[in-house]
Structure formats: structure tokens, C-alpha cells
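A favour, since you know our C-alpha cells better than I do. Would you make up a two-line entry for one protein for me to read? Write everything out right here, beneath this request.
=====
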Amino acid sequence: MKISKRDARIWFSFFAELPEEEPLLPRQQEIVYATLAQIEDAVERQNDALLSQVPGVKTLMGRTFYVGDEARFPKGCRSCLTGTGLSAVRKTNKCNLNCPFCYNAGEMDAIPPVGEGYWEIGGTRYRVEDLDLLLSIQKKPSGVAYVYLEPFMEIEVYLPVIRRLREAGVYQHMYTNGTLATPHNLRALGEAGLDELRFNLGASGCADRVIDAIAEAKRHIPSVGIETPMTREFEEAFARKKDAVLATGVDFINCAELHLNENNLPNYFGENLYMSRHGYVSPIFSRQITLRLMREAALEGWPPVVHDCSNRTKFARDLNLRAKEGGWFGASSYGSEFARLPFAAFLPVLEDESFAFLEEEELPHGYRPGEIVL
């Protein structure tokens, strides 16, 4: 069903007015899926055109795109996409910043703690002394990632865990906004055995002190990169600070396609959105920024790898993870962040005269606006 944009707009306006508890009937669901497919097809056509303009594009086993020296492609991403997946280690439930793109936007004071003296690994609570037991029973992962808000709020408590997993030969990477990084704690992380540190440079608006911290981290930690959701604010700030950022010797720039959930969606309401494979909902502009940066990096020969960490990459990540877990053919944990599709959030793209569907046709009988849909 190649629904027209006009009909899609009429129906989505209707769906947006329905009570949340009212389920959609099968034909209404067909209309929803047809609309999402039309938007997604048009977005992919635009992105394919942009990608075709990037010289020297490489892939990692067809699972993601990047430009630059393969030796600098982050091993944390390699573990995520080809190893045993993204094994998350969680501890800190606080952050010193409040970013509009954060998945926890608006609920920073309501994040439950992991527990004093405990770490969350694989959904289970562990004390540091339990790690020997865990490693003796279960197969060690190809890598782990320290995630969950800002670890530098209490970075000293991370050091014993990093040391133990280092002894076990587990590759470890960590995420930070970088505003609390100092020469002292960066050196301590390197001495403990952290393999890779990723700075969310967009969180600070490409602040000079964070750029300085990236350069300092390169003195102590083997692999140092940037991983930031692609927003217009970051694109503008990075353009101003590009020379300073590249001068740090940073190894990679992971350009994360911004995806939305119920917490951060209000901060991007009014933007043109699309839904990828019935899963992540993202502003259309986000991956376009990535592809523009990749083209610039390729044409200018930037030293760091610039990686297209897109919704497609996340789709591949979850397929790989489920396969490594022994899942059945086609199984994946990739899915929507919303219990009910936020229909009103898709009205801007349906009302945008500059955004065209690739092909349109008249709705069949029983699906047209004004008809009873059974």
C-alpha cells in the first residue's frame, strides 16, 4: 500500500486524537505501517544519495560504514558488532549535566541506584569479590562497556573492577562527558587497565576543557575517541573547534544517530522524524549530519576514523548479540522504545511540503478517510 502523504496526514491526525488505551484495528495498523514505510523509504533514498558522495567508504563485515584507517576502528565497536555484543557494566546513577538528547532527560533525580558496593552486570548484582566466581563459571565476553550516566562522578570506585577484568583479558571501554576528567583520574584509569575511553563531546558543546581532556587521555589510555549523538548544535560547535579536536590525536569519532524515547522526545517535538525497521525513532537530520561529516573527513584526510553509528548499525548489533546468545534465526532484541507510537510526533514530517514520498497511490476501499475501518 503506497499511501499518499495527504491520506497519511489525515489518518495520523486522527490516531493522535485517540485515547492511549484504545487499540488500533488491523486495517488501521496497516495504514500506520504503510505510512512509516513511506517515510522510511524516502529517508533511505536521501541517505543513500549522501553516502554515495563519501569517497573511500569502508564497511565492517557489511554491518556498519566508516571512513579512515581500519587500524583505528574502535575495538569496542568491533566487539559490539562482531564479538559477544555490548556487555554493559553499570554503577553510577547520577550525572553532572542535563542534555536534551539524553535517554534519561527529565528524570535525572528518579534513576534508581545499583546499590552501595554493587555493580550491575548482565542484569545481576555483583560485588567486586564476586568477579572471580563469575569469570570461573561463565565464558568471558569479548568486551564490556561502562555505561549508565556519568562514571566520573565516582570514578575511583571503578578502578578495582577495571583491574580485575584487565587481569582476565577482557577489553574494556567507558563513556564520559569529560567535564570531570583530570590528569590524575585519567592516569589512574590508564594504570588500572582501561582500554578505550569515549567522550560525549556534544554534551559540553565541544568545551575547551573537554578537548584538553581528550588530549590528556591520549597520554594514558590506548584508544581514545568521541561518541556523540549527531545534533545541529554539535555540528555547529564541532565546525568551530574542528582543528583543536583533531589536534588532540583522537583515534575515532563515532557519529551516533540520535534516537528518541519517551524522555527525550519532547525536546525534539516538531522535528521531522522517521522510524527505522519498526524500532528506533530518530530525527531525519541526525544521520544526515553523520554523512556530511564522513564526507568532510574523507575529502580532508582526517586522521581519526569517522564511524556511521546509525540505526542500521544498531540493528546489526542486536542481530549479532542474539546470534551469539544462541537465538533462533531472525531473532533480535531490536525494537521500539515506545509502548504506543507517538502519532503526533510524525505530523511535522507529514506536513512538510519539502518532504516527498517516492510513490503514492489511492487507498483501497475500506481504508480511505471517512470510511469505517473494520
Remarks:
- The domain at 53-339 is CATH 3.20.20.70 (TIM Barrel).
- DSSP finds eleven helices and 13 strands in the chain.
- The chain has a mean pLDDT of 96.
